[in-house]
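User: I would dearly like some help making sense of a protein record. I have put the entry right below:
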Amino acid sequence: MSPSPDEETVPTEPADEAASQAASGEDPFADDDPVASALDQPVPPAEDYDLDGAVDETATGLKIPQVSADGVVMHDDEPTDIGAEETGVFDTADMMNSADEEFDALGFDTSFGAAPGGFGGAPGGAMDDDTPPGGIYVGQAEDQVVLDAHAIGRALAEARGEETNFELPDMGTLQVGLIGIDIGAAKAVVARFDADGRHEIVPNQEDDLATPAQVFFDEDGERLVGREARQMAPSAPDRAIANLKEMLSDPDFQYEKDGSELDAEDVLAIFIERLVRDAEEQAGARPTHVALASPAWYGEEQLDRLKGAVAETGLVLVGITEEALAAAVPYSLRLPDLQPRQALVFDHGHAALGVGIVRCASGDIEVMARASRRGLGSAAWDALIANEAARVFKKKFDIDPLENAGSALDLRQRAEDAKRALSQRPSCTVTVSCEGKTLKVGFTRAGLEKAGKKLLEGARELANEVREQAGISSWKDVDALILMGGGSRTPAVRRMISDEVGRKPERGISPEEGVAVGALYWGIGERHRLSSNG
């Protein structure tokens, strides 16, 4: 079918079938994305990047995105070297070969369309990955070890200074009705125990293992949550709550439309209730207790609002732990002895990069030092793509899509999908639409990595700052590298921190799922402590 007069179609040579889908305007992530499409958000203000100004233009030609007072991403008209091509024609043979070598060296699975918690296929097969479908294991996949009452009891005993003759908790009682939730800036993940005592990630009603953390209020009064909310947001941005984490940080937040007056606790309760119903559908019974994880930058006000939202759902909150501690729980619980280890938790989330040094010994975890920087999260990588796509579009049509709220939100969502695609293959296209005009802009992984050098350097500096704060003189004294957050799947990020620390990341659990699983196991210990005390 011929394009309409207002649509500019650019010929492309996609790298693979998924790229072909993107070039045709289809969403290659609709069914095959390893993580449910995450919620986008306004790019953080320039000062949050803390990167001492712009990227070296002699190296990349790209400046760190600026944002106006009304949240619109600003950019100049200077060409960049991010790998964007208006023609969309790529020479991909050499790129794909080198990319496969890089992915293999990092332990990535290079096939497209995998699912978290085990990339499908039999162990050792073409789609084998280091995250099994369930359980936490030591060694090879065939030697999986499921955490049991003994492991939990030992952890609790050590926390009390005991090494032997500890009391085993009643795991059957502690597991019943308990869920662990990680509410991220982009998505939320829920973990629970199945009937056999193994942890599992709860799928939502779309059968996705992660739910976009977004709420949308339509004109008919219906409240949409998750994927539907994300899809509807560009059509009416004023009816979308785009970032629940940021919402909790706004003491003056109020949603007032169509007779509704909701504060932050009310909106978050709507979202949590949806997660609870998904868990109820999976288990056949409504959860009764919940354990949560929160970012290091949350203060008492945010935590109080979080507690208030849980109270509105009727669940019993067993506690809120730090994300860094929750991420370290699975690693700590599977240690073979009580000897202490020091681990780096590198949590590359959507809104922020969180880094922590933890001291672990079979479940007893001490956070030695931690810090977060909200300008270094994976949203900053999305901004690099969105800014460049907008520049090319404006050059073509003299229209800035980032000045239109709906088009800007749509572009940010597509930029995030493109970033994820470039973690799987060397090139992709982004469709930009505004005021009846459409343009497909091509991007390469190599170009994105070049443009993101300043972000990588900022992440490296933050990791070293935290190491020094913990009193550790060398990375040689750190025993493990724990990667968390969907952004840690970006090859350049994973490669940078692995090279810096000098060791491969720990295996055994998906980066997107680790905090929720950690909160779940932490919740067992906290629930046992609360029951023992009263």
Notes: The two ends are 71 Å apart (CA to CA). Confidence is low (pLDDT under 50) at residues 1-81, 85-148. The first strand starts at residue 66 and ends at 67. DSSP finds 16 helices and 21 strands in the chain.
